[in-house]
Design brief:
single chain; 262 residues; alpha/beta; six-stranded mixed beta sheet; four-stranded antiparallel beta sheet; binds adenosine-5'-triphosphate; ABC_transporter-like_ATP-bd; transport; ATP binding; AAA+_ATPase; nucleotide-binding
Length: 262
């Protein structure tokens, strides 16, 4: 049965006197896979930080997994149930740590192994999750020695290790070469297609990075939602042209999208 995992009503975020998001009304259900698009500075990462319970709104209400997020205590309780992969978070991962430990520490919500005793069941799950993201063969390697593409897949494996109810991905394919991008997009598409996967929200700059099977899209412009809804309807040539201020043609084939200037 589908249920709402993210609900934002009349949400605004202000920082240093600037309004970064305003009038945001948005709902994500557990069987939906969303992509967030918009020009640089539109507020995409800020929207994801709200959904990750990393920040609280300046106005309006944010409800995550049926809990209102009004203060730091609410947010701290919610965070273990939300998977979040972003390059800002990955910079905090210890580069000398083994891939297996990077994944295992996620089970305890920490970024470095100290003296924890892990259960066999955690290790088995870690290997299963690594295999799911096609990095199990790298389990004993140091995280910092991996290629960008391998590191991105380990970050996502880490963010799903604790079996989250909501998975948030901030530009997971940024800086990847074509082969690594396509490998990641294929794996994300497979993950998105599974009914047992959580709700997913992915921020990206490029429609080519949207995996097949994503169901919804939201376009942010100047901190406001310019369009949102079913992906095919929202990612229209006219919506993207007006969001990015350039005349583009958007095409889709086999569930994937391309965009190019007219
Ligand atoms: N702590 C802060 N204080 C003041 N302004 C901030 C702060 N954090 C972000 N901003 C501003 O808020 C706006 C939205 O930032 P955000 O990172 O959410 O946008 P974005 O759409 O993810 O951008 P990009 O595509 O460039 O990553 C930007 O203009 C940014 O400079």
């Amino acid at each position: 049965m589908s249920s709402t995992v993210v609900s934002m009503k009349g949400v605004a975020v202000e920082r240093s006197g600037n309004t970064i998001l305003s009038e945001v009304d948005w709902r994500v259900k557990n069987d939906q896979r969303w992509v967030v698009l918009g020009p640089n500075g539109a507020g995409k990462t800020t929207l994801l930080q709200l959904a990750a319970a990393q920040i609280t709104p300046s106005a309006g209400t944010v409800t995550l997994l049926d809990e209102d997020v009004t203060n730091e205590t609410d947010a701290a309780e919610l965070r273990p149930h939300i998977g979040f992969a972003s390059s800002a978070l990955s910079r905090r991962l210890p580069y000398g740590e083994s891939v297996l430990d990077i994944i295992l520490t996620a089970a305890y919500g920490i970024t470095a192994r100290w003296k924890e005793e892990y259960e066999d069941i955690d290790e088995r799950r870690a290997h299963r999750v690594l295999a799911e993201w096609n990095v199990d063969h790298l389990a004993e390697r140091r995280f910092g020695e991996l290629s960008d593409g391998e590191q991105k897949r380990v970050q996502i494996a880490r963010s799903v290790m604790a079996d989250p109810e909501l998975l948030l991905l901030d530009e997971p394919a940024a800086s990847l070469d074509l082969g690594a991008r396509e490998e990641l997009v294929r794996l994300l598409g497979g993950y998105a297609a599974s009914p047992s996967s959580p709700a997913i929200v992915m921020v990206t700059h490029h429609v080519e990075e949207i995996p097949a099977g994503f169901t919804h899209a939201v376009l942010l412009v100047g901190g406001k939602i310019a369009a949102s809804g079913r992906i095919d309807e929202t990612l229209s040539s006219s919506n993207l042209s007006s969001a990015f201020g350039v005349d583009v043609v958007v095409e889709s084939s086999g569930g994937r999208f391309t965009a190019r200037a007219k």
